[in-house]
Fold this protein.
Amino acid sequence: MNKKRIARYRRARRTREHIKRLGHETGIARLCVNRSARHIYAQVIAPQGGKVLVCASSLEKAVRDAIATEESKVDLAKRVGQLLAQRAKEAGINAVASDRSGYKYHGRIAALVQSARENGLVV
């Protein structure tokens, strides 16, 4: 693996350990965000057991239709954040801790998290 990927994994591992300790103490779920060159994925993971409670991605039909209209990747990330917040509220989840998976809080990652915040999820 290249050095950048190793550094990202190291940052992600450090952040996840901190969030897991926080989750065990307070019971807050974890919002895990992953991205590829074309798509973005988000999951809300339970504090104990690591079970996926809610998920959303840019591969879903509701969001894929936006790809056909040639929106930017940041706009797609905003749509995914909105969809995730709606599903989390339906599942009874109000607060999550943001796990960026070692990515910078910038661009698509920031757009997704801010969109989830604007739609009622406490991040």
